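Human: Cast an eye over this sequence-structure pair and say how the chain folds.
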Amino acid sequence: MDALRAALEAAGLACVSTYLQSGNVIASGEDAGDVARRVAAALGLLKLDAGAFIRSGDDMRRIVAASPFGEDGSDDSHRFVTFLAEARTAELPQRSPKGDWEILIQSKLEVYTVARLVDARYGAPNGPLESRLRTPATTRNWAVVRAVAKLLGCDDE
């Protein structure tokens, strides 16, 4: 993450910080397009073949406010937001075929899911959603989404 932070700063992004070791980065630029171009340049410098999913502070505020989770009995490690690279509105099943995850809300750029314990394993929604929606996706658990939003000043709790 130190190399990523340095590359992002070298690419011209300001106020760069990282959260955990999973590629969660907070940075500022002129606009989302500017940030996306600079992130792509930084990833190129590092020779990383990875995509970036850019969300603004306003986006994160909207994502946290839209939370459908309530008190469903799941802890945050089994609640997920899948971030899509491109807007998609394809019809998705409400539950996986095994019943190990279910969709609570689907918007154009995010899908909120809850993983369920089936056969001693919790479901993982990222791969099936990415495949079904035909766009790259990345999934973060709710605790990480809220922590990043809080760092941005978007989570008032």
User: Anything to note?
Assistant: The chain has five helices and eight strands. The two ends are 27 Å apart (CA to CA).
